[in-house]
Structure formats: structure tokens, C-alpha cells
Amino acid sequence: MKRKLEDVTIKMFRHGLGDCFLLSFNYRKEEEKIHMLIDCGVLSSSKEAAEDMKQRAQQIKELTKGRIDILVATHEHWDHLSGFLQAKDVFEDIDIRELWMAWTEDPTDEFAQRLKEAHDKKFKIVRLAYDRLYTENILSASQQQAFQSFFSLFGVNNHEHIGEKESRTALAFQAIKNHNGIKKKYLLPGKVVIREQTIPGVRFYVLGPPKDKKLLKKMNPSQRNPETYLNMGLSHFGDNLYQALLPDDSHIQDAFTPFRKGIGVSQDRLVEYRRTFSEANKKYEVDIFEEYFNEKNKWRKIETDWLNVIGRLAIHLDNGINNTSLVIAIELVDSGKILFFPGDAQIGNWLSWKDYKWEVRDGSKSKSISIQHILARTVFYKVSHHGSHNATLDEDGLEKMIDESLIAMIPVDSDVAKKRGWIMPYPKLMKRLDEKAAKIFISDKDHEETNQNKDYHETIIANE
């Protein structure tokens, strides 16, 4: 007798700014229940956050009775993966059957590997530039905050871990990839995943990330001045910037100055003249001191102005990784209801979905499913990128979600976001969600349906 899916329970853990969703597919018999975990991370890398994530992981272990059938890792950001490193011991004690990732993690995909190399190089550029600026103590408070906001996405707290070869996010991802006995699956957009033997009555539509380079690079809705990240990392400029940030070497330094070899002098060679006027006993020493180290002339110094471009590069890298998010739409076949999980997908990822048709069987016939069909039947929306300004399409996104019973969940901590200069959730998006959704659960706010211990928000989607 075919197992019938009764409903799906969705839990959004309330542990700070980060994604951690547990889906339980409930069949008639309790032992037939299937568990899917989508991400498990928090932005903070503090000891307190690590302890909290261990408690969440233990909670997940108890709720699933030590078995996760499918683990979905959407993309390589700390606020989605940190728990797999912070609570590594707990997760190692859980039987995780399958790991689903985007094609961008596939070691046999040539483009995926080039993309990963570009990301790694950009991260190293930002890390080296920050280390230079930090060492020379020339960062303003706002610049320091901006850098820390960026590095927090890779598990770096203050100046610690800056010199590590890999980001801690990469280490977290590696921890789950190396989980004992786990089967790894790399998902391609436009495909449908069906597990009729293990999870009957459910279809998984893979929407993103796109394989199209132009769309993968598109972060913001502006067409006149599109935000990109891939160009910078693969350009000669990116390579030159990387070389210029390497430890001091005379031939490298000369190669990146606008003058012929031997013209000019590095600031390091002037340090010997950094002394008080009374200590300077020669006129030329006084002149050099006045020229380069007097506070009145500090505004004229341009030694580190070229590093200002690093901020933009960091934004490109952050947004670019968001756009590699694995996006899945989960269909409960009997009812046709869709549960929509876009990770942190941004505009380019969203725009790519209109190019696909998903082929499925309907009895003895086959039919094509479009993104319009998927959005129209969406009854649950995990709001992309914590409700930011550029991660939910309007006319071709939210406006197409027309089901009156729509439920939205937003994993966000607005206080944490505010401290980092982020507007999350975005007011205009919230206004429209308030108008369209029957229910909205926000992780940093209580809801009348919040479970008693308040560790997570929970909703049940009936398959009828």
C-alpha cells in the first residue's frame, strides 16, 4: 500500500540572524516520518553563539530521533552553515543520509571550480587588504564595522582567524561533506528530484543557482549599472591587486608603481625618520618628517587610497555567494501545494527561473511546469536573505504568489542587522508581505502560534 503524506511540519529556529529550518514530512505511521534540515547557522562566531548552536543541534537530534534523511546546504555563508562546525560533535552523532548542494559545489564541474577559485581569490584579497589597513591603524570606526560585517559571513570574529588559509565557513561546509556515510548530491536548475521510495508524494523542483554567467553575476535589479562580482575576481585588476597585497618584495612593488624602477621610496623606508622635531638633528630629516608625518598633512597621504576599492570587492563577493544559493520548491503532490525555499538568492538567481520548464508525470501523461505555476501554488515562502531589499522579486516574484493562505517565515534579528548597517527586514517588502500573507513568522518576534518554549516558530501545511 502506498504511503500517504498527511502534512508537513516546518520549524524555524529562533537563534539569531541565521537560517535553520527543520521540515518533517508526516505519514500515517510515526515511523514513516521523514526529516529534512535546510541549513543551520548563525551570524555570530562568539563562544556564546557556539554554545547556543550546540543546544539547537541537540534539540534537532531529539526532534528527529537522531536521523536526518536529507540535509540541504544552500550556500557557503556562516549564517547558514556555522552550526556544522560549532556543534560538530553533536551532528557527528546524527545519522545524516543525504547531503543536497548546488552544482556550484560539484568538484567535477569545471565552471563551478573556476567560480570557487574566483571566490577564494577575492576573499584573500579582502583579507590581505584588511590586514594591511588594520596593522597600520588607519581604519575609521565605520570602515572597521563594514569589514567586520563582511568577515562575520565567513566566521571571522574581530582580527582572529584572519590569517587562516581557509574561511571558517569553508571548514563548516567541509565538516558536513565529510560526515560519515553521507551521500552527496549536486543539484542542477531545471531538474526535478523524486524520491518515491523514501519520501513518496513529494517533488523537489530545483530552480537555482543559474548556470548562466550573466545571471549569476547579477545582484541588483538595476540594469543600467548592474552589480557584478565575477568580473573583478577574474580580471587583470584583481590579479594585480592580489599581487600588490602580498608581503613586501622590491620587484613586485616596482611592478605596480606608475613610474620606472627606482623612482620614489616606500613608506616603510621612511619609518626611520619618524621621530620628534627635537630628535631630528638634520634639516632634511625635519623636512621629511614635516612632509610625511605631520598630523596637519595627514589628509594628503594617499598610500592606502588604492585599498578603498576593497569595500566594493567585498560587497561583490558577499552578493555573489548569495546568488549561488540552492533554490528548491517542494511540491506536495496530492494537494499541489508548494513550499518555497530560496536560500539567500538575489536578483540574477530569480530572473533565471523563467527560462526553465520542469517535466513531471501526471498519471500516464507528462506535463511542463513553469515558474508561474510554482509561484501561484506557493503556500509557504521562506523569505530570501532575511528580508533584504534585493532578494525578493516583486512583479515576477512575490506578486505571483497569489494563494490567500500564504505563510511567510523570515529568519532575522533586526537588532543585529542594524548594528551592521543592514536594513533587515526591508520596510517596503514587509508592507507588501503584510498585505499578501495570511501569517508572517519573524524569528526575533513572538507570534500567537509560537511554541511554548519559544525556541522555534512552527507551522503545519496540510496536504489537502
Give an account of the 3D structure.
- The chain has 464 residues and is α/β, with parallel strands linked by helices.
- It has a domain at 234-309.
- Helix content is 34%, strand content 20%.
- The strands form 3 sheets. It has a 7-stranded mixed beta sheet. A 7-stranded mixed beta sheet has the order 7-8-9-10-13-14-15. A two-stranded antiparallel ribbon has the order 11-12.
- A hairpin with a 2-residue loop joins strand 11 (358-362) and strand 12 (365-369).
- Helix 5 (110-135) packs antiparallel against helix 14 (309-322).
- It starts with a strand and ends with a strand.
Could you give a quick summary of the protein structure above?
The chain is α/β, with parallel strands linked by helices. It contains 18 helices and 16 strands.
Features of the shown structure:
globular; 464 residues; seven-stranded mixed β-sheet; alpha/beta; 18 helices
How much strand?
A: 15-25%
Number of strands: 16
Secondary structure tally, helices: 18
**What is the CA-based Rg, rounded?**
25 Å
Which residues sit in consecutive blocks of at least 5 with pLDDT less than 50?
225-238, 248-256, 273-278
What share of residues is helical? 25-40%
Distance between the termini: 19 Å
Write the layout of secondary structure elements.
Elements: E1 5-13, E2 20-27, E3 34-40, H1 47-63, E4 67-72, H2 78-81, H3 83-86, H4 88-92, E5 95-102, H5 110-135, H6 141-152, H7 168-177, E6 183-187, E7 192-194, E8 202-208, H8 213-217, H9 230-234, H10 236-244, H11 250-255, H12 267-270, H13 283-292, H14 309-322, E9 327-332, E10 337-341, H15 347-352, E11 358-362, E12 365-369, H16 371-376, E13 378-382, E14 407-410, H17 414-419, H18 427-436, E15 439-442, E16 456-462
Parallel strand pairs: 3-4, 4-5, 5-6, 10-13, 13-14, 14-15
Antiparallel strand pairs: 1-2, 1-16, 2-3, 7-8, 8-9, 9-10, 11-12
Helix pairs in contact: 5-14
Domain Metallo-beta-lactamase: 32-91
Protein name: Metallo-beta-lactamase domain-containing protein
Organism: Mucilaginibacter oryzae
